[in-house]
């Protein structure tokens, strides 16, 4: 029988999937599907769904690296919410709820749910600090790909990454601040796991009595 936590994770995955599909359909109808899949928000939410489905499918057979992968996705979604609030959303939008249900799900609900679910679930082993570095690979690849694609198409998913909207010096300065924030939040996620997440108890196999 499925546990309540598994059912809630499945509901979250279905809701996020519905929001992603709805956005993709709308973008496709406008001929903007390529732009839609280029947003960090959509990519991090898709990773969240993949990890939920993979975790439910593997059950207790999850490999040791799965906790680190789950921590990475939690970190990416946390940054999705933070960057949206600080750099993307207009100030008057932060306290409003009339931004469409997909915006609420992908920008607000999913980051909170991902962090809470991750903190409340049990970890299987002690985390290694080295993962803070490899967690940055995806953001760096995303950043590089965004600038390369933007140089060809003259389109950037976020204004703070768009040198045509300001200047390269301003974009690089903002990017440097964002990268520092990425490392800081990744370190915070790593430390929180070691201090707040409960450790999963390994069942002890009974020892058979020796035959006399």
Notes on the protein architecture:
The chain is mainly α and 212 residues long. It has one domain. The chain is built from eight helices and no strands. α3 (40-58) packs across α5 and α4 packs across α5 (101-120). The longest helix is centred in the last third of the chain and has 29 residues, at 168-196. The model is unreliable at 202-212 (pLDDT under 50).
Question: What's the β-strand tally?
Answer: 0
The biggest beta sheet reads: none
Residue share in β-strands: under 5%
Report Rg.
Answer: 20 Å
Q: Roughly what percent helix?
A: 55-70%
Mean pLDDT: 86
How would you spell out the order of helices and strands? HHHHHHHH
Q: Catalogue the unreliable spans.
A: 202-212
- Please tell me what the overall shape is: globular
Work out the oligomeric state of the chains in this entry.
single chain
The chain-level structural class is mainly alpha
SS field, number of helical segments? 8
Distance between the termini: 41 Å
The overall number of domains is: 1
């Amino acid at each position: 029988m499925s546990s309540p936590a598994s059912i809630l994770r499945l509901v979250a995955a279905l809701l996020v999937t519905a929001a992603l599909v709805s956005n993709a359909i709308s973008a496709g109808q406008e001929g903007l599907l390529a732009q839609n899949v280029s947003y960090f928000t959509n990519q991090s939410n898709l990773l969240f769904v993949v990890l939920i489905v993979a975790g439910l499918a593997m059950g207790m057979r999850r490999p040791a690296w799965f906790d680190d992968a789950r921590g990475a996705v939690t970190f990416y979604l946390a940054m999705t919410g933070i960057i949206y609030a600080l750099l993307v959303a207009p100030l008057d939008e932060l306290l409003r709820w009339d931004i469409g249900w997909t915006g609420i799900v992908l920008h607000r609900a999913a980051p909170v749910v991902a962090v809470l679910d991750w903190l409340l679930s049990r970890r299987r082993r002690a985390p290694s600090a080295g993962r803070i570095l490899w967690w940055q690979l995806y953001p760096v690849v995303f950043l590089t790909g965004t600038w390369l694609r933007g140089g060809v198409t003259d389109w950037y998913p976020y204004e703070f990454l768009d040198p045509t909207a300001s200047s390269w010096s301003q974009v690089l300065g903002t990017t440097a601040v964002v990268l520092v924030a990425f490392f800081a939040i990744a370190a915070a996620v790593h430390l929180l796991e070691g201090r707040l997440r409960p450790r999963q108890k390994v069942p002890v196999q009974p020892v058979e009595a020796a035959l006399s």
